[in-house]
Amino acid sequence: GQIIPERRFVEAINRQAYQYEMGDFPAEWEAWIRKKRKDPPTIEEILKNENYREEMKQKIKDVSEKEKLLQAKEYKEGLVAERVHTHVKGHASAPYYGKSEPSQDPTSAASSFQPGSWMPPGSGSSHNK
């Protein structure tokens, strides 16, 4: 005999099946559907894991706030140099470096290169057809 593999799927309740995206349903169900786990998850397991994720988010937020306060204290006491805020105005090789806006006319530092004088074939009146 031939062995037929088990098929697992989710029935869409509130949306069309094509409207579901990754992350729309719990990771436990995702793992079951993709056969990463043998048994489907229980409601208790999903709620427990969801609570755990929320606790971790809160702990991360708390640690981040403590770190900001500690960093502010270190800045104030002079233990750590404050960040230097720089403003980049452009690249030195740009033709409009140091100017507020780029020029409408093309420019070049080379003596033989003049991009403003070139016209595509067929677009100028002096072009022979």
What does this structure look like?
The protein is about 35% helix and about 0% strand. The chain is flat, with a radius of gyration of 32 Å. It has helices spanning about 25-35, 45-75. The termini are far apart. It is built from two helices and no strands. The protein is mainly α and about 130 residues long.
Number of strands: 0
Question: Helix content range of the residues, please?
Answer: 25-40%
Beta content = under 5%
Number of helices: 2
* Strand/helix succession: HH
Rg over CA atoms, rounded to whole Å, is: 32 Å
Secondary structure class reads mainly alpha
Amino-to-carboxy terminus distance: 77 Å
Shape category: flat
Q: What is the mean predicted local confidence, pLDDT?
A: 77
The major sheet is characterized as: none
* Spans of at least 5 consecutive residues with low confidence: none
Record keyword descriptors for this entry.
129 residues, flat
Write the layout of secondary structure elements.
Layout: H1 27-33, H2 43-77
How would you summarize this macromolecular structure in one to three sentences?
This protein has 129 residues and is mainly α. It has helices at 27-33, 43-77.
